[in-house]
Design goal:
heterodimer, A: 196 residues, alpha+beta, Alpha-Beta Plaits, 2 domains, 5-stranded antiparallel β-sheet, two-stranded antiparallel sheet, 5 helices, 7 strands, B: 483 residues, mainly alpha, Formate dehydrogenase/DMSO reductase fold, 16 helices, globular
């Protein structure tokens, strides 16, 4: 799962109005933006970064119809085949009376399935430990991490990032994957490389 | 200045004061990081005391049987089901705020949605207690689940509204919890990143699931919130519809009406908003969040209260009209003798309900009163009393005099254990709410930040200035061109 150790040039922005042109310029200059970390959903940033639309809602729909068919299939099997009971002479297959439960199970399957898929895709779970490029990325900083390859000249990237209006520019080395760890232990793998 | 959204400058700001992103974090997360005040301890202590009363009352009921309650053969449902419907109804406002208002793109929901959703979850927890303990032999409660068993297998009756209730309430609780918690994750990550102590960093680290704020994650998060809102919207309507089916699908005069689903849903939102007002008026004062839960928010909720209160009033009058118009003597007896006749045993409760739910909310047609904190707080209590009586009236007055006069009940009043059980659910509710207010961000921080630049007071002032300058420039240009 782990994507290996990589080097990143990291800069932070205080205003999304500065961030947007910066994203555009960095991409134009041919650098690869690893990610931008923001304290709240900045609308349009995904498009600016060239990230494709999520298809999470499609997954939600599939989970939903799974719930519908599960409910209808299960109730039909029970009340028609497994143990038919005569409720006031009404038909065994009494669909209108099953609509409430079918609806509830549709919603339940869809909601649970989507949340689990969301957590799976974003690797969110208790005890998951990830690399945080900036301590205030959840508070008031918009943090851009540019991925470096062997051929990248860090100093050049740093000065370019500076020119776009970024602050607190530094170079960090991090593992791009994720792994399970605990919070109280110091992460040995991460260190800020000095001298760049 | 590149603004991502535009909001009319006519609208009043949703965030007062001179705020930037960091200040928002400080204001909302700050109270979590401090030791709770004296008021918190007093409140928590009272909640614990009520909870203990509730636990003892439930113990009596389980140990000595359902006879500890004053229910009898005629009045099989009394305070327990009244309280159940009341609590479920209260929960509805939270989902309305978080889901329906999200779909309607109402910016003001951001200030109140987190606390309202928490209220939903706790209210549904309280509601669930009543049918569970009413089972009497509560250790058999798992019989309501459709599982392969050795009794046949004898399955549950999927055609029964009571089973629909089981599915509706448990789905509602689960989905509300998922919706609430998925919204909490980014804010818990903020608490984690601000944490000064190791323990707090560890606990909030576990709770925030390793959230980083990645753009892709936010994109998925937005999609998730939108779809969950889309799912919760019909869900919340279905839940109280199904609760109303408990009554409406029966043949009891007074219950057997097709108007029940919309009428119950409107009543649920009505009482729920009243409870949100009660809680948030206290929260904004104690936690000093007046800049985020502004008079504008309170006014908006009061508008919903006057709307839903009037829908409920309309439903009451429709019921009376239809009872008369139907020409059915049993219906007419239920509505005009058991309820609307002030001198019948429960006539007082009907007119108390009418006054609290229909007459008193009309005060909110006045803007001055809608924006008055004291009046709003007082009204929120009145409305909740009224909505409790609505359920009491529907349940008890429909069954205390049934078709056979020989089995007409003597006057039903609750035993101390029924009252104790009800008080106990208040204990449970407020215990949860106090813990929530202490350990979780009571306002959705990320969502407030997302609307700050369009709806924050300081930004609005700047924006108005810019618009004015633009308009002047435009005018001058036009004049110049004209010559």
């Amino acid at each position: 799962m782990a994507g290996g150790i990589k080097k990143f040039v990291v800069g932070s922005f205080t205003d999304e109005a500065v961030l947007f042109p910066a994203v555009k310029n960095v991409r134009k200059a041919g650098y690869k933006i690893h990610d931008v970390y923001t304290p709240f959903p900045v609308h349009g940033l995904d498009h600016a970064l060239g990230i494709r639309e999520t298809s999470l809602h499609t997954a939600g729909f599939i989970y939903g119809i799974t719930g519908t068919t599960t409910a209808l299939g299960f109730i039909t099997w029970i009340l028609v085949k497994d143990w038919p009971l005569n409720f006031g002479g009404k038909p065994h297959f009494s669909l209108p009376a099953w609509i409430p439960i079918t609806f509830e199970l549709t919603v339940l399957f869809s909601a649970i399935g989507m949340v689990l898929t969301f957590c799976y895709l974003c690797t969110l779970a208790p005890f998951v430990k990830k690399h945080h490029f900036h301590q205030r990325a959840t508070d008031d900083r918009f943090v851009m991490a540019i991925e470096c390859t062997d051929k990248t000249n860090d100093a050049e990237v740093q000065s370019f990032l500076q020119s776009t209006g970024a602050q607190e520019i530094n170079v960090q080395v991090a593992e791009t994957g994720w792994w399970i760890g605990t919070y109280d232990r110091e992460q040995k793998l991460y260190k800020e490389e000095k001298g760049y | 200045m590149s603004l991502l959204k535009y909001e009319s400058q006519q609208r009043e700001p949703l965030v007062d004061g001179d705020k930037d992103y960091h200040q928002v974090s400080e204001d909302i997360i700050g109270p979590i990081e401090m030791k709770p005040g004296k008021l918190w301890y007093i409140g928590f202590f009272i909640a614990q005391a009520l909870l203990i009363i509730g636990i003892y009352s439930v113990y009596r009921e389980v140990a000595y049987g359902i006879g500890q309650w004053n229910l009898n053969k005629t009045i099989g449902w009394g305070w327990d089901i009244t309280n159940f419907v009341w609590w479920v109804g209260i929960g509805h406002a939270g989902t309305l705020i978080s889901a329906i208002l999200l779909l309607f793109r109402q910016g003001w929901r951001t200030g109140v949605n987190r606390a309202a959703e928490a209220m939903t979850i706790f209210a549904v927890m309280c509601a669930g207690q009543f049918p569970i303990w009413h089972m009497g032999r509560v250790w058999m409660a798992f019989f309501v689940m459709p599982y392969p068993n050795t009794r046949g297998p004898l399955w549950v009756n999927f055609n029964s509204p009571l089973l629909w209730d089981v599915f509706a309430i448990s789905t509602y609780f689960t989905v509300s919890l998922l919706f609430w918690y998925s919204g909490l994750i980014p804010d818990l990550a903020l608490v984690r990143d601000r944490a000064k102590t190791k323990l707090r960093k560890m606990l909030y680290g576990i709770a925030s699931f390793g959230w980083t704020g990645s753009t892709k994650h936010w994109q998925r998060h937005e999609s998730l919130s939108l779809v969950l809102a889309g799912l919760s919207t019909p869900l919340v309507l279905s839940v109280h519809t199904i609760v109303s089916f408990d009554f409406a699908t029966s043949v009891i005069p007074g219950w057997h009406t097709t108007i029940f689903p919309p009428y119950f849903v409107a009543g649920a939102i009505f009482s729920g908003f009243a409870m949100v007002q009660t809680l948030l008026i206290v929260v904004r004062k104690v936690m000093n969040l007046k800049d985020y839960i502004t008079l504008g928010h309170i006014e908006a909720m009061n508008k919903v209260i006057v709307l839903t209160g009037s829908i409920v009033g309309c439903a009451y009058l429709t019921e009376l009209f239809i009872a008369w118009y139907s020409g059915n003597p049993y219906e007419q007896w239920a509505f005009f003798q058991s309820r609307a006749n002030l001198f019948s045993p429960y006539g007082w409760s009907y007119w108390l309900m009418m006054f609290c739910n229909v007459v008193s909310p009309q005060l909110f047609w006045s803007r001055k009163l809608r924006r008055n904190i004291t009046v709003t707080f007082f009204m929120s209590i009145i409305v909740n009393i009224g909505m409790w009586y609505e359920r009491f009236v529907i349940i008890v007055t429909s069954i205390y005099r049934d078709f056979l006069p020989s089995s007409w009940s003597t006057y039903y009043s609750p035993s101390i254990y029924e009252i104790g059980f009800y008080l106990g659910t208040f204990g449970l509710f407020f215990t949860c709410f106090f813990l929530f207010a202490k350990f979780f961000p009571v306002i959705a921080v990320a969502e407030i930040k997302a609307i700050l630049k369009t709806s924050g007071e300081n930004y609005k002032v700047k924006m108005t200035q810019m618009e004015k300058e633009d308009a002047e420039k435009f005018y001058l240009d036009e004049v110049e061109h004209a010559h």
